UniProtKB/TrEMBL annotation, chains A, B:
Gene (UniProt): ADHFE1
GO molecular function, a single term: hydroxyacid-oxoacid transhydrogenase activity
Name of the protein: Hydroxyacid-oxoacid transhydrogenase, mitochondrial
Keyword terms: Mitochondrion, Oxidoreductase, Transit peptide
Domain Alcohol dehydrogenase iron-type/glycerol dehydrogenase GldA positions: 5-177
Keyword Transit peptide set for record: yes
Keyword Mitochondrion: yes
CDD domains: HOT
Amino acid sequence: MAISNIRYGEGVTKEIGMDLQNLGARRVCVMTDKNLSKLPPVNAVLNSLAKYGINFQIYDNVRVEPTDQSFLDAIRFAKKGEFDAYVAVGGGSVIDTCKAANLYAASPTSEFLDYVNAPIGKGKPVTVPLKPLIAVPTTSGTGSETTGVAIFDFKELKVKTGIASRAIKPTLGIIDPLHTLSMPERIVANSGFDVLCHALESYTALPYNMRSPCPSNPINRPAYQGSNPVSDVWALHALRIVAKYLKRAIRNPEDREARANMHLASAFAGIGFGNAGVHLCHGMSYPISGLVKTYKPKDYNVDHSLVPHGLSVVLTSPAVFAFTAQIHPERHLEAAEILGADIRTARIKDAGFILADTLRKFLFDLNVDDGLAAIGYSKADIPALVKGTLPQERVTKLSPRPQTEEDLSALFEASMKLY
Amino acid sequence: MAISNIRYGEGVTKEIGMDLQNLGARRVCVMTDKNLSKLPPVNAVLNSLAKYGINFQIYDNVRVEPTDQSFLDAIRFAKKGEFDAYVAVGGGSVIDTCKAANLYAASPTSEFLDYVNAPIGKGKPVTVPLKPLIAVPTTSGTGSETTGVAIFDFKELKVKTGIASRAIKPTLGIIDPLHTLSMPERIVANSGFDVLCHALESYTALPYNMRSPCPSNPINRPAYQGSNPVSDVWALHALRIVAKYLKRAIRNPEDREARANMHLASAFAGIGFGNAGVHLCHGMSYPISGLVKTYKPKDYNVDHSLVPHGLSVVLTSPAVFAFTAQIHPERHLEAAEILGADIRTARIKDAGFILADTLRKFLFDLNVDDGLAAIGYSKADIPALVKGTLPQERVTKLSPRPQTEEDLSALFEASMKLY
């Protein structure tokens, strides 16, 4: 496995102009979204660029929870600008959009579906050289600054899918905890749930030596290799940070220790899942986001309905881990213990229920919507949710336990109400 | 920080021919030493190269604990061979020699001292492109497969020094636990002590944000950055593996679980210290090795006196951590607990003594030579040992506690006898 470059520390964003100078960049594209464009993280980047005399253009039209159309808009801007470096300042939506813009600008004859994951797209390998991309995350969830994944909503099919290739991994991730101080409460919570699920899913994913078929050449190994001794280190470490700091980070914007630790945990979990992969919570989350009806979450200043990614992932987590625990129950129990369960008298066969209960209690304490019903879904939606999950086999096949359509149906049903 | 590629698994060495094909290699240099050249790890590599039709030449003249002269011999071979890729199969001596050969063959007009660490050499930055190097470690200690460091004995000055640059970091490290099964007992022990000290030193090194002067440009940061939240994860994880598995791995060559875990711990600790750095145990070890008199360790089949690197490092560890613990005593106490100490009633001001005692007990149980006196040194040698430590400021300055010549003298004296 290869791991991205990251740089960590309060205020390290101010070096970004020097980094771009070191890269020999002369025309830089700064990507962000409309809300962020007036906030301190973008200011810090622009001040540094000005200080080091770096020419740049700003694209602030990134859509929160991007779509194929919003990706294409950014790609058009990137192609026209002929940039020699990119800086993405934002959450996963911004960083993912910037990865796609960099990729397609470097590959001008490609059709959009060429690089999109099969079976929705053609899943072609990336062989063109990309420009350097520096990612400056402003949320603490996606870990996108450390991964080779870019996710979007494919409007025609009403489903989320993405592009996955080591080639689109950022050149450098700047983990500057100062940027977390402007995050509203629910964004801290929802992005934190993404970290929680990255850690839990990558720790419980199908082990790397049990995937099949085994590619005949190591070069053909997928980005998501299954759980392994290296990703396990990151997953467990990130989970411990979540257990210790997520509630504090949500409750108090001034708790710099908690917010800094969650910012780092997001990158750590990203390194883990970017190598091991995720499975059912993520696979099932894509139709939950893609089929959104009228839900508008608190603290998100957007003009469209959306289910924040972290929320769409975490709502099925109790059902998912109750389902997967029959494989590697000891890992499920270990995760429950890290999250605060007393497992001294626990029976190993109850591992799934114990982890599920621990997660429910964790979510209840954090005042999370009571299941899929609370964000607008009913039993009648389950067939569409299942249908939207089936094309996500890139991740669902990493579930330690194989699942039928009936299983998926039952998992969605069990996630309608949590408390 | 950037982290090397590693691949882990029993038997993964058999893919190396395919890796070289993927790299487009046509003339490969395989480096090893005379003992290893007849053993299974080298056979596994050569069989894979033959299977995939890769042309290669073998250099098996690597010296265990290499010198400037043995580096130069390997460099001459590399220059003459005009290789387009390198494979190093062996312990740290082999991998380090191969890094140097690759570097100087790619930089034919350079003088040998150009890239050697200042103040002994000129410490010039590496700007030439190197050929791919795949490292296949056969010991479990050095972590050289994950680092940009190559260490040798500079005969003229009777001191160890080295080359340190991210540019010489191997392209890929193949961590194949099968190779550990042929390791003799003392080699498992001594290489394991190197892992132990990598973990302890990098965890207690001067923190990354307390180094000074702070380079004005991030590109000028040294390879060794001080302890930081990323290297801490690796150091602690490696230390836990050492505590659980090192004794088992030494005692029983058939304990595949223990040997596999130590093989992985070596790479993990390498990722940690390759980023954070090491400090006094390593800095003081170079003269301990360099000034060797007549000591010939058990299980090393060589025709010259030598102090194995891991042994030279660990013998001062009780004295060193008793000395450094006044800075970050809680980290010293945490390390002692991981290594088995009961710290429930410990006082924080005793942290250094507790860790020192824990280390002494650990070494006694493993039947390690009783201090520097047991490997041929006496009080009369201390001035020379101190003098040999002074040029190692690249690492000694990472000690959390600054040290005078008198301090070094006292540390050597306290290390003459351990039990």
